[in-house]
């Protein structure tokens, strides 16, 4: 389903976009058919390109014109960029959660651990680091056991 244009935002008709980027209107229609661009529509079904659409178009043109990527490759790259942005958002949310939990303090953790499904004590929450001397001694023990 085509999206509708929102009031108060700047939109460009296909002729203005094709002229601005020196691209044939049929090429813009092709990008839309391939699912690379999704311009909004007026009530009369005229394509309207937003600033976000133009940024996406610039990315598509850079990939095709400058790097020689075909449309299938452009689709893959754009999908991967979208997934990376989603993953980055999830990581940021997780980091915010961790920061909030750390701010609550270890006292709260002791209380939560006492009611956890798997019982644990705060002494079990020890950071484990391995330096190279520990790794070397582990390797030598393994060799001697063989």
Please characterize this protein's 3D structure.
This protein has a three-stranded antiparallel β-sheet. The protein folds into two domains: 1-69, Multidrug-efflux Transporter Regulator, Chain: A, Domain 2 (Orthogonal Bundle), CATH 1.10.1660.10; 70-120. The longest helix is centred in the middle third of the chain and has 34 residues, at 71-104. A hairpin with a 5-residue loop joins strand 2 (40-41) and strand 3. The chain starts with 11 loop residues before the first strand and ends with a helix. 61% of the residues lie in helices and 5% in strands. With 146 residues, the protein is mainly alpha-helical. The chain has helices at residues 14-20, 25-33, 51-66, 71-104, 106-114, 132-145, and strands at 12-13, 40-41, 47-49.
What CATH architecture of the largest domain do you see?
A: Orthogonal Bundle
Our measurement of the CA-to-CA distance between the termini, rounded to an integer number of angstroms, reads: 66 Å
CATH topology call of the largest domain: Multidrug-efflux Transporter Regulator, Chain: A, Domain 2
Task: Compute the number of structural domains.
Answer: 2
Note the total helix count.
6
What assembly state would you assign to the polypeptide chains in this entry? single chain
Unreliable spans are none
Write down the overall geometry: elongated
Supply the CATH class of the largest domain: Mainly Alpha
Beta-strand share of residues: under 5%
Strand order in the largest sheet: 1-3-2
> What's the Cα radius of gyration?
27 Å
* Averaged pLDDT: 83
Task: Please estimate the helix content.
Answer: 55-70%
Topology pattern, helix = H, strand = E? EHHEEHHHH
Sheet of most strands: 3 strands, antiparallel
**Care to count the β-strands?**
3
Structural class: mainly alpha
